[in-house]
Amino acid sequence: MKKALVLLLCAIVIVLFLSTFNTETEGYIPTGDGLHSQGQSQPTSSSRQPVSEQSLTLVYYPNKPLNPYQTGDYTNRVLFPLLYQGLFSIDDDYTPVPILCKSYTCSKNMRVYTFYIEDATFSDGTALTAEDVAASLHAAKVSPVYQGRLRYVDDIRVGDEDSVIVSLSISYENLPLLLDIPIVKASDVDAAQPMGTGPYYLEERRTGLQLTRRKDWWCNAALSVTASYILLEEAQSNAQIRDQYEYGNIDLVCTDPGSDLSVDFRSDYELWSCENGIFLYLACNEKSQIFSDPALRLALTHAIDRDQLIEDFYRGFATAATLPASPHSPFYNRSLAAKYTYHPEAFREAVALIPPPEPNEDGTEPAPVTVTILVNKTDSRRVRVARAIAQMLTDCGLKATTSELSGKDYTNALRKGIYDLHLGQTTLSPNMDLSAFYAADGALNFGGLLDTVIYEMCQEAMANAGNYYTLHRLVMEDAMLCPILFRSYAIYTSRGTFAELDAVRDNLFFYTLGKTLEDVYIP
């Protein structure tokens, strides 16, 4: 997963010179010589070359949970693939890979799945049971981290032959895509540091908390991490993490270049990336005098220079999307997506058709038509993105301004529809479910997005992936939702620490057991 960025001595000099300037305006110049990104095939466990044992130190926040159901903090979640395993793992193409699932069946109506459990063990040597899996999935279903993706799960129960039965309210063609959820011991689902079946376990030492390699790991898969133990440095802030990394006290740091708290790294490093599922979009308000016009809404996508936004505000750590799905996912149809790319002249033509405002009663010229983009000002980076989009619209002939609000003022404006456009952000589940936008009880259903036909097609797409094309066509023709991009994390590693780092969504240390979904499915 490499895209070489050749580092010359003069580049170092340039970076040192530019370090005194604001990188938001001057641009981001990485100092490592390896940008490793998603999009290329992952090596399987059988194809990986042996790597000598590492000396490795990672970082965590001691004041934040190390329970996978209780935290969305990406710094602490870096540790989870080393401690826990799911029934499945998800590769960089959004394909499920069996881990703790030995085999599974699916009913004809695709509403009942039965998962048979591998002969795995926890770090204390006790066997993984169906009760552990069921308890973990129950905890996930009420967790703020996972409850959205499990909204259609009606029941989770233990079946015969050490199996877990999951019943759904709608038909799901590929439920395994949602089940990369970490499994812990049933008695530990509420614990601060639950026990898992992964290759490492947490151990309190005189020097502090560390991860210790299991000598009896049940599957013994080949990993990119080979250390016998991993020291854990306590984190206080992003800046402190950066400083500890640059002092050589930490070997891997996961950062979010799209966050206000992001900091720049200036030391020597290797650089990797992985998608995080965060989706940035514009949503129209049906009450808008301007965007109630379907033709103008349809043309809006052509006004957005997504590549420029990614370069200016996300340092390249995002992927442009003109459909509401990750371009890395199998649901993203590139032929359809090509119809909605940046084409400012098309938007100018649509703007030219807006009827001119009526003259004022006193005969003076009316004020020009202006649209407002609502944005949450607690996220200063998103505010800057909103201002850039407003300028893009203005440059195309439609004057646009931003309404930058926070707290109750922001939520009230959103709920009452006091805006023309809303710049929103959410994390989509791995199956790219859009129900939250279009369902009557959807958490993202603002400004008149409710649409029964599109909502029903959301469910049809989950029942048959072939329907994602129709779903996305309907969304784009309705044009109430304008996709912009999907964000990625940046992962900095000490040079030479990893021969390969198979970083995928929510899992920086992806590996397989050499099996595919087809291998474990029982027709």
Describe this structure in words.
The protein has 2 domains: 37-251 and 494-520, 3-Layer(aba) Sandwich (D-Maltodextrin-Binding Protein, domain 2); 277-357 and 364-488, Dipeptide-binding Protein, Domain 3 (Dipeptide-binding Protein, domain 3, Roll). Mean pLDDT is 90; it is low at 1-51. The protein is built from 16 helices and 19 strands. Strands 1, 2, 13, 14, 15, 16, 17, 18 and 19 form a 9-stranded mixed beta sheet that branches. Strands 3-12-11-10 form a 4-stranded mixed beta sheet, with no helix packed on it. The protein has a 4-stranded antiparallel beta sheet with strand order 6-7-9-8, covered by helices on one side. Helices cover 24% and strands 22% of the residues. With 523 residues, the chain is an alpha+beta fold. It has helices at 9-18, 23-26, 74-77, 80-83, 130-141, 238-246, 294-300, 306-313, 334-337, 344-352, 380-395, 407-416, 435-438, 452-463, 468-478, 517-520; strands spanning 3-4, 34-36, 56-60, 88-90, 96-98, 101-106, 112-117, 153-159, 163-168, 200-205, 208-213, 229-234, 252-255, 270-284, 318-320, 370-376, 399-405, 421-427, 481-493.
